[in-house]
Amino acid sequence: MEKPVILTLDDDPAVLQAIARDLRQHYGDRFRLVRADSGAVALDATQKLKLRGDTVALFLADQRMPGMSGVEFLEQASAIFPTAKRALLTAYADTDAAIAAINNANLDYYLLKPWDPPEEKLYPVLDDLLEDWQASFKPAFKGVKVISDRWSPDSHALRDFLARNQIPYRWLDIETDPEAQQLLNLAGETVDQATHPCLPLVIQEDGSKLVKPSVTDLAQALGQTTEAAKPFYDLVIVGGGPAGLAAAVYGASEGLRTVLIEREAPGGQAGTSSRIENYLGFPVGLSGSDLARRAVTQAKRFGVEILSPQAGQALRSEGNYHFVTLSDGSEISSHALILALGVSWRRLNMPGIEQFTGAGVYYGAAQTEAAACQDEEVYVVGGANSAGQAAMYFSKFAKTVRILVRGESLTKSMSQYLIDQI
Ligand SMILES: Cc1cc2nc3c(=O)[nH]c(=O)nc-3n(C[C@H](O)[C@H](O)[C@H](O)COP(=O)(O)OP(=O)(O)OC[C@H]3O[C@@H](n4cnc5c(N)ncnc54)[C@H](O)[C@@H]3O)c2cc1C
After folding, report:
1. Closest CA relative to residue 239, chosen from 309, 153, 341, 312
2. Phi and psi dihedrals of 377, rounded to 5?
3. Cis peptide before 168, with omega less than 30 degrees from 0?
4. From ligand 1's centre to the CA of 239, what distance in Å?
5. CA–centroid distance, residue 284 to ligand 1 (Å)
6. Is the separation of the CB atoms in 267 and 289 below 8 Å?
7. Is 144 helix (H, G, I), strand (E, B) or coil?
8. What is the Cα gyration radius of the chain?
9. DSSP symbols for 115-129
10. DSSP summary character for residue 195
């Protein structure tokens, strides 16, 4: 985890250097020091810290500066980091302004220049403030943030991709989460309530933004491999479910140059399972995402190249060679080709349903959507094992879960252990 920040601000370069030196000496092992020589620079740095998911523990600002006073800066900064402590470092002549600011702007403290010796005049006060801050500190989420409204199919596709590829992310609902609006403003975007033209907005860990990215844009920005390193392989596998991954592990462990192409996320159907209880070697069961993660690690250890998201679109064979055209138009060839394409969801044939797909109607998306269904009513359509697992998983979050089963009984299509759980 990155260290929390102490941001210090003074327009006098000599003072700024001296205070930064003293702060670093005493707090450098636990806090990261950021310094600024004007209110505008400090505000810009504060906004960037927020976008990157950093945390500010303390703002320490000079009061008298051209352009923006210390109090004005602290007021704006605390709107961005409301729990950070705020102190003024003032000359004796500004004491009255500092006292007024404590009353009017809710500042935590004011310190007088010069602060020598710091062991007496600086550290005790700041130690106190930082201890107080630490007591209520909750580390901010570091990672990808997706901002959208809840019923956006594009946002669902991005979140499903992140969840299935086990990339930590946080989703902020623009309609209910005030932080979403704040991050949007800091990223320089505005939202028209009716149309949401810049959403979904993705903010990456380094604070950079992607406006309405496609899944492939996002995957590439996050450094996922989508292009083959070589034109020719001993073994090409299309499909990264359990079958494809197992084939990749065995092929590569025999020394074959192996590439696996997966259009959604390695793990396939099994990767979407909330709990697999009948997999050999895991007596207490494991989640599908755990199984996928283990299989991907094992395959990569043997040198398998995994391209995802990337799809095989066309095939042809010439003599002993097989050629696969990928969705980006490139082509790779191999001695051996394995197609492990599995199955796709059967679509619900119901008039008007398409417009709600990804916006309230989901296929196998328990892991992505369940947390958003807190205290809501959920209907699961289907009577076999995936429906049973999804129902059990949703029941941890939803108020009620109802399973709609076409058949006469669950026993025809669902495993007994799931029926017992339900
Ligand atoms: C929710 C759920 C829970 C389950 N729970 C259990 C369980 O507890 N126990 C159990 O034994 N089984 C369970 N299953 C079934 C099990 O997951 C499947 O039998 C298994 O995943 C099949 O593996 P597969 O590799 O053959 O195919 P799949 O898992 O279907 O994988 C095929 C992969 O190929 C990819 N693909 C397809 N076409 C292309 C293309 N053109 N280019 C690139 N990639 C492509 C797909 O995206 C997919 O990732 C469950 C299934 C689901 C959906």
Report:
1. 341
2. -100, 130
3. no
4. 9
5. 21
6. yes
7. strand
8. 28
9. --SHHHHTHHHHHHH
10. T
Which residue is listed with tokens 């259009």? 263
Q: Which atom of ligand 1 is nearest to the CA of 261?
A: 43
3-state secondary structure of 402: strand
Lining ligand 1 with CB less than 6 A are 238-244, 261-264, 268-270, 272-273, 276-278, 311-312, 340-343, 364, 385-386, 389
Question: In terms of CATH, what superfamily is 232-339?
Answer: FAD/NAD(P)-binding domain (3.50.50.60)
Nearest CA to ligand 1 atom 38: 341
Please choose, from the candidates 62, 63, 45, the residue with its C-alpha nearest in 3D space to the C-alpha of residue 54.
45
Q: Are 252 and 299 in contact (CB under 8 A)?
A: yes
What is the rounded distance in angstroms from the CA atom of residue 308 to the CA atom of residue 314?
Answer: 17
- CA–CA distance, 406 with 381 (Å, rounded to integer): 9
Which residues have CB under 8 Å from 369's CB, separation 6+? 156, 362
> Mutate which of 341, 386, 413 to test ligand 1's pocket (most atoms within 8 Å of Cβ)?
341
Ligand 1 center to 297 CA (angstroms): 18
Q: Do domains 232-339 and 354-421 have the same CATH topology?
A: yes
CATH number of 354-421: 3.50.50.60
pLDDT tens for the chain, 422 residues long, are 789 999 999 999 999 999 999 999 999 999 999 999 999 999 999 999 999 989 999 999 999 999 999 999 999 999 999 999 999 998 877 788 778 877 777 788 889 999 999 999 999 999 989 998 998 888 878 889 999 988 999 999 999 999 989 898 999 999 899 899 999 989 988 776 556 678 999 999 999 999 999 999 999 999 999 999 999 999 999 999 999 999 999 999 999 999 999 999 999 999 988 888 888 988 888 888 889 999 999 999 999 999 999 999 999 999 999 999 999 999 999 999 999 999 988 999 999 999 999 999 999 877 888 888 999 999 999 999 999 999 999 999 999 999 999 999 999 999 999 999 99
Residue extents of the structural domains in the chain: 5-135, 144-221, 232-339, 354-421
Give the Cα separation of 421 and 68 in Å (integer). 63
Other beta carbons within 10 angstroms of residue 208's beta carbon come to 12
Is the domain 5-135 a CATH 1.20.1740.10 member? no
Residues 418, 420, 422: CA angle, nearest 5 degrees: 70
Q: Specify the residue with its C-alpha closest to ligand 1, atom 27.
A: 342
Q: Which CATH superfamily is domain 144-221 in?
A: Glutaredoxin (3.40.30.10)
Residue whose CA is closest, atom 14 of ligand 1? 270
